[in-house]
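User: Fold this; tokens only.

Assistant: Input:
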Amino acid sequence: MEIDARLHNDRLTGEIETTQVAPTPMGGRRHVAGVLRDARADHSLPSASAQSSPALETLLDHARDQRSTALVLVKDGKIVLEQYAAGHDPEQAVIAMSGSKSLVSLAVGLLIHDKKLSLDTRVGALFPQWRKLGAKGTITVRQLLTHTSGLDASRADFQHGETIGEHARKAALLWPPGTRFQYNNGAVDFLAVVVHQAAGMALDALLEERIFRKLDMRGAHWMKDAAGDPRGAGELFIRPVDFAKIGQMMLDGGMWNGESIVPAEWIARSTEAGQPYDESCGMLWWRLGKFALTVNDAMLAQWHDAGLDDKTLATARKLLGKQYASYAEYGAALTAAMGDAALATLQGAAMKGDHLPYSGQVASGPVKGFTAEGWLGQYLVVYPTSRIVAVRMRAPEAGDYGEGDRYGYSAFPDDVAAAF
């Protein structure tokens, strides 16, 4: 079974390539579309009743229409709604897809607090063999966290036993580290190896000891490579209610039951803009608010590498500095500047597994929250001001692999904001 890269909420959110899905806890179970029922996982969290409103009813209707497997809403630290699809056991873990990346960020934050890593730690300082790889050895932890490493974005060939570390060493450096933004699954996978080297223990063991056990999370586990390192870019299995616990800890500044679990300064830093090319992206967390779409010089260089000619790029350059409120408006401006054929070439390249950026984003209004998210519409949404944590997850079904992100529920963060 293969899951290819797809656009989710107008951005590429990773892929899984595996033949090992059948034995996992999702076990091939299917739910009945459009049915969500009240149920409760064993989680020992306090509960309260949600105040009914038209906006909340809209959220529930959309969650059902989008074939959700699980919906968990936490307000002021209390679960106000917990629903699961008929046939889904609340204790069953669901694959988080690229929402897994945000948990990798937490592990890195722990090691920065422990002074075993810094954002400026170079890969060559951790792995002596990387010092012979030229500019690749200068890649920093910050660049791996912010999709600016310049490494080829492809992943290891897990089906044939290639390890993440081997793949990263062989991966081409496509451009100087730190100079461009390109969503990068391979780099996030490699962060698990970086964490292992710095911590002296695997990423999953670190998270289990320092976070999962303290939050009484149950059954969270990762698919791993042949060396035993977790596939951090997309293969965490987690109960929806435990995903919500992570969000509540984040909302509370890293605290849980009076104990500091993750440093508050890391939560703040990792949810700020991580680089200047796409301000909607932090350090493996996405930021929620108003963002305008733009064209920038780094993107134009990447479009050139993808095959757009100099004449076409010269027309696109006229859009530098301009901002567009929607993808429809942005697409229309690109079409007018570049023409249909060039835009089709660009969109085709962006849809390939190399994650070529289609637009830059700059904040055009307040940033109100942050989210971990992935293909199929896996969401952990946190709005600190309204003190709401919301999780929506959907277990994969056989038809997904040919239909793309048909039930991705891209409006979920907005529906949550409207309801609370």
